[in-house]
Structure prediction request, 275 residues.
Amino acid sequence: MKHVLKKLLLITMLLVAVGMMLGASNAAEAQTKTLKTKTIKAGKSVNLKVKGSANWAISNTKVARMTVLSANTAKITGLQPGTTNITAQVGDTSYRATIRVKAGPKTSGGGSASVETLSSSPIAGSRDSAYYISTGTEVVGHFDDAYANDIVARTNSYRSSNGASSLGGQSTLTQAARTRAVESAVRFSHTRPNGKSYYTVGGTASEGFKDSPVYGENLAYGYNNASETMTAWIASTSHQENLVRKTFTTIGVGVFWAKQSDGGYVAYIAQEFGS
Prediction:
């Protein structure tokens, strides 16, 4: 019996030892890698790149804006002096980078402090208006708020089913989305017709548009309703990632029916996200 007890004791000790070894192995797999500290001026950008598909996060959105360009690359744009940390989680490895933002060059003045807006003129006897974008181009059409509101509702429903919190509506984001929807009818791109990036929309000229509320954007055109639009975005990896990104907290959607030369209409949809 004593021999049996000794064998059982030995087996138990071996199992404990193996368990400790496994625990040590698992602990060793989780690691943090510190990337080189980057210093940029307000208004300037730097790209961070890691190996593998990452979940990106930023600690201070007042100091810098983070735009996820792809699963392994994020663009960081300085907003005001300060320090922020960027984290990229790839499996069990966490990459961390410190971004220091310095004051940008002083301007000579002359810039307007007013928020960028979309000007328009109603067309008598029509539901359409003529809208004027920053390049002076005129686009004729009308907005569809019911379509836009349906996208907001469906986006929040989709986020809920994917473990992300609902996004609150924001009037400045909605105005920015309406502007981008009209601009998309002229140039369907994340680069605006005036050559600036999408995230400058809704900011102020005096701040170089760095104070824009926009941190992410989804675009679409040619779809007849919110269901079709959401289905297309969900099927696209980059658009789907925006739909469920946990760093986003606010949303604005604009749907613009642009009048075509044959008298028909095509819907241009812009979905803007804020943090």
Observations:
- The mean pLDDT is 83.
- The chain is about 30% helix and 35% strand.
- Residues 2-29 form the longest helix (28 residues).
- The helical segments are 2-29, 145-161, 171-186, 226-235, 237-244.
